[in-house]
Amino acid sequence: MKKKGEKQVFQAVQPARGKTVSESLDSRWMMDLIQFNNKPVEVGRKTWRFVLVAVNVFDRYMYALPLESKEPKEVLEALAKLINTAPRKPNLVSSDDGLEFKGPVSAYLTRRGIAQKFKDTSDVNGLGLIDKAIQSLKVRLAEATTVAGKTWASELARTVNGFNNTPKSGILHGAAPKEVRGNEDIRFMLLQDQAKNMEHNKALTARRTSALQDSGNFRAPVKVGNNTFTKSYQATYGAKKEVASVKAGTVTDNQGTRHSLKSIQVIPVNSSEPGPSQLAAARPLKKRVAGADLAEMLLTLMRREGGPMSLTRAATLLKEQLRQTSEDYDEALRKTGGKLADLIRLSPGLKLIGKNPASKQTWYYVALV
To answer: Is residue 328 very low, low, confident or very high in pLDDT (cuts 50, 70, 90)?
Structure first.
């Protein structure tokens, strides 16, 4: 039984099976910031260090503006411009609960009749849509700035426009985000998709609620190292907790702490806790946490370049990518344990293709799972 508890605590978090939904074309936006503190760009009297990014959840249309700081007042000015640029204001805007999105930003949204929702800190995938969009935007900006004289600030508008004009075969039925608003057929199909996704989420919540009520016990994601709550491929679980109530996708434990239903792990009533000797099992997970950004970057590069590719080629691409944001590849890799092959072994979505005993090949390849 102790072994079972150990596996529960240190296994990777359960995959996010819920769907990101938007009830209609202008129902929901998500927003977040990109930080370029290590690569500021001076334009006239301004020094850009941040980018405010917003995405319309329904049609995936992206908006972005550079910022000098992440002071709420400046974030407010940029957000107001983005909303005024949009054909219609959103009904709701979601973000994390950073101070930059509070105060004057909250007051502005209230005045405009726009609801504001802060991501629950225990909901590790609550802003997954914009997290993915921002990662892709950073990769494309890095590619655009390989040309001498170009900066992420000078290429931001062009790159965002490219996103909005790129067809999305699966999500948008082959349409580009820019085409959705004017295409009644696409909008109808997307509304049908959203209805199916909402039913999927409703059924998933019902199953999890039922399982939790039957068990009465669960584990919740906790911080690893310096991470408060990590993304789905980084999370680990804490001690066993008892359920006090379950309502509207939120679990309250018997200490009064609230947790996101979709992030917790239902466990058997009699499951034990791992002893101190089992804590060594956390080491691979900590390395995976430390290398999460590097692994995600390699995933994005692999999807773009195709594969399999040699580890030498993968390392070269990562070095080029990190150089665009003034980051050091060797330092980033050192934090993961120092070996790219080990990082790949610990990373969901990536796999090593072993050496070929039938040839003189003595190296590994990396491929997408």
So the answer is: confident
